[in-house]
Design a protein that fits this description.
2 copies of one chain form a homodimer. By secondary structure, the first copy, chain A, is of the alpha+beta class. The first copy, chain A, has one domain: NADH Oxidase (3-Layer(aba) Sandwich). In chain A, 41% of the residues lie in helices and 16% in strands. Chain A has a 4-stranded antiparallel sheet with strand order 1-2-4-3, sandwiched between helices. In chain A, helix 2 crosses helix 7. The two termini of chain A are 29 Å apart. The interface between A and B is large, with 79 and 79 residues. Strand 5 of chain A pairs parallel with strand 1 of chain B, so a sheet runs across the interface. Chains A, B: InterPro entries: Nitroreductase, Nitroreductase-like, Nitroreductase_HadB/RutE, RutE-like. Chains A, B: Its EC number is 1.-.-.-. Chains A, B: Pfam families: Nitroreductase. Chains A, B: Its cofactor is FMN.
């Protein structure tokens, strides 16, 4: 039976979690990346389609390949991050549906409808990117998600086959609290929620 | 200092969490909905833009308004759910940026670029919908997200002002484990992740 997680967990996941621009000089090892995927993969997607693909840039050299695509305020901090993940989607995600969603053959539905492929890939890879952020926090990591980059340049550099496309980018590491800015506010309940 | 959450928490959020189609006859009260928003609101969005708006359908009558838009396999279970949330976005989210992101005036950036408004709203309201799913699980609730509906019909019924648009829909409640199907598989690490 599920109950509410304790306050420390809710703080770590949501209430005290922050977007970090600078990280402590502490590596994110491959075992942690494997553990991260083994959590985030369970998040729900439409038809269990799991369109997201994750390119993990572990070295400054690998991250340097991103530099020309990044906005000026994202460049330096990304090169300096312990790990950067390109959250992308596979435009042929539906080829795997017969294995991933055995309950119903949804592959023809997507083969016949490129617009549905596009919206499903964009929406669900975004969901999976959010699962990555929260799974990272659940493991004691901090995330620095960003969408300030030129998508065409990222796609050209990392996905020359044109089969994949970037959604957004997330720096990962152990955040340096000394570098945090003041926290921005949030919309009130009444601004964001309508009860019917 | 953050550490890894305990196994019970990781199970509840990710490893044992399931998408539910049927819920126990246990209400989701307004206090729980308020607590849910007070968690999910902290999730990161680009420029802290928070484009998502949440329409919470608490009664069968309110959910009945959704029925004509839902695919046949989503209709009955949604009418029967304790609560249904329409995750939408506000196309004028950037009007609130001067208050929500005081560090930098991003409003003109969006005013001049309708395509950027569209992709930012779609991506970030999807992220916020994922935060809602995981915040619900953190509170011991279960979620039943779905995208099998006619968006134009939902928008016409709930957003006649054309200022808002649906992204996806989530049933919430306390899942009935007796109604679960066998769990679908997930892509292996090597299918989804590339280490560079």
């Amino acid at each position: 039976m599920s109950t509410t997680l304790n306050d420390a967990a809710l703080d770590q996941l949501f209430r005290n979690a922050r977007t970090y621009n600078r990280f402590l000089p502490q590596a994110v090892d491959d075992a942690t990346i494997a553990t991260l995927y083994d959590l985030l993969k369970w998040g729900p997607t439409a038809f269990n389609a799991q369109p997201a693909r994750y390119i993990v840039l572990r070295t400054p050299e690998a991250r340097q390949r991103l530099a020309p695509a990044l906005s000026s305020n994202n460049r330096e901090k990304t090169i300096a991050a312990p790990v950067t993940v390109i959250v992308a989607h596979d435009k042929r995600f539906f080829d795997q549906l017969p294995q991933q969603f055995p309950a119903y053959d949804a592959k023809p539905l997507f083969e016949a409808n490129p617009a549905l492929v596009e919206t499903t890939a964009a929406r669900n890879s975004a969901l999976q990117g959010a699962y990555l952020i929260l799974a990272a926090r659940a493991l004691g990591l901090d995330a620095g998600p960003m969408s300030g980059f030129d998508a065409a340049t990222v796609n050209q550099e990392f996905f020359p086959d044109e089969r994949h496309a970037v959604n957004f980018i997330v720096n990962l590491g152990y955040g340096d609290p000394a570098t945090l800015f003041a926290r921005s506010p949030r919309l009130s309940f009444d601004q964001a929620v309508t009860l019917l």
